[in-house]
Amino acid sequence: MGRPVPPHLRARTLHRLLGPATAVAAGAALVAGAVQTPPPTGGAAPAAAPVAAVSCAAGVWKADYYANTTLTGTPRKSLCDSSINENWGNGHPAGISLPNDHFGVRWTMRRNFGGGGPFLLRTAGQDGVRVWVDSKGYVNLWHNYASTQRATVKLAMPAGTHTVRVDYAAVTGAANVAVSLAPTTPDKVAPLA
User: Fold this and answer.
1) Exposed/middle/buried for 145, CB within 10 Å: 0-12, 13-18, 19+?
2) Quick one: which of 143, 104, 151, 147 has its CA closest to 123?
3) Angle at 123 between CA 118 and CA 127, to 5 degrees
4) Model pTM above 0.85
């Protein structure tokens, strides 16, 4: 064993090796008898921060954008949309790091449908579109279509609050999607009266 290093030399060596702020913290740890791992000084970059959670108001769509058509993994971006009516042409959504092909979007909305009644669900999209109300599927056009496909479904919407989910996949070529859900007769029950 070598001779013990005097405290003033230990502090000077830490300061020179770790920098002033880190040396103070490391010195405090040595005094307290704790072992601390110094922060990394280069090498691999830290992992990317996760996408911040987004909460949208009732009746507003939450859109999660994925860099795949399986809508799995962490979304590249999440935001609130007042409607689903997009036409990206042969590109991808502006301001979001996605490929021009093979990306997907999942919209979800929690909404109070008042007294319920007859609603008309309309979809148009190229390529894949799927729509659910709660856990029941109403539209399933999940394919790499060469042109925009349309579907219209009459729903007998139960009264109260329900979750609507729309999945969209842009496979290749043009990318567009539009979905609307509107009552066919005026609702006389709050909140839609």
Assistant:
1) middle
2) 151
3) 155
4) no
